[in-house]
Amino acid sequence: MPLYKFGAGDVFYNQLRTYPSSSFYIYSGSVYYQNKSTEVGSTVANVNGVPIGNVSLFELNVDRAATSTGRIIGLSSSVGTQNVVDNGTIYPFIEKGLSKVGFKGLTRKQFINDYAQGDVITGSYFMSSSITRRLYASTAGFNDTNKDGAALRNSLDFAKRLGPHYNFPSGSSAIFTNVIYIPSIFYGSEIKKGTVDLKFYITGTLVAHCRDSRYDGALIMQGDADSAHSTRATDGLTVGCVLYNEGAIILTSSARISDLASSPNIKAYSNRTNTTTSDAGGKYTWEHFGLGLPQGNDTSLERLTTQAFLQSASFGLEFAGTHKIPTVTMLANANRGELNYTNNPTYIEFGQTTYNPVTSSTFFGEQQLNIKNIHSSSYSDPTGSLKKTTYITKIGIYDDKKKLIGIASVAKPVKKTEDRDLTFKIKLDI
Length: 430
What we know:
The protein is mainly β and about 425 residues long. The chain has helices at about 110-115, 145-160, 185, 310; strands at about 10-20, 20-25, 30-35, 55, 70-75, 85, 95, 120, 130, 130-135, 175-180, 190, 195-200, 205-210, 220, 240-245, 250, 260, 265-270, 275-280, 285, 315-335, 360, 365, 390-400, 405-415, 420-430. Strand 13 and strand 14 form a beta hairpin. The two termini are about 30 Å apart.
């Protein structure tokens, strides 16, 4: 089989951009991603093994329940630190040995002190991600010395050139600061500008709607909400901003959307150490958007003294991400007069023996075999001139050490004659 080297103009490196859309619906403390509820499996409540509204980071252990099987791989027959236990699921593990290799999330101190030589260090593939929310009171200093605000302050200061909606004074200018965090697994490298859409529903009726319609990160109120539920004209009002690269939506507007029959008392961080909370109520605004979302790592922080607002309010969040996919395009050339021989047995005429060599006292050679003439003809057994014809079905790709690293298959065999030039375009998404 001949090998050919790619020329200078035969390999191209490109980048493909895709903009997959994501949607979240929040109601009564539950999050629904892409309008999907629980997908019940045969052995587990959710086939991916993650909560509703989350995506599985590894997409492993599909429809597998973690149950004891009694099987152990290790030095002894009992459960111990030097054994890999079969619990019905797959999980990563590594032995602490001379290589001193551990998992990325394991600190050096933990690796040295928590595990002895020969111990098996295990991990988990049941990892998931979803959007979270944090609500800060003005005294919490969101953009002052607070942990989250300090982390985002450089990004906010850099974005001030786009408009005053990114300007957060010390302690924040709003009574409360509502921050929705979107993990990068949902949007890739950045959120696509102009696609962020927030909707506020009360008993299923759209009462407020904002978008980054100016493509500058400013969330602008839209005029398509039900005016019967709105007590003031808020069309065109800037209610917050979006940090596209960091995946953060910051809502600061305290403008009243509508009054409530009963006041919602929600919890918010009221100090800079995220240890004390305070109540806010009396009206609902964009500061209440996402009520019921997990509060970061603390899902028990937010509590309501009345459930009327939580049961009637729901929220929609939509956006598109930007995913950059590296691609490699390779041109494989089958030049004229080349690749017109094959080891396929049907390439020669039927009935010829291939295992009887021609021998004498001074000569040893293989028999000359006639090639089957498959050139198109009006007769079943043509006697015209021979035209070598092959059919290309696969193309192998080799590295510099002539090791096969990939195979490209065509949809149907491609006819190759001696007077024909062919070029196969192979594209690989990385």
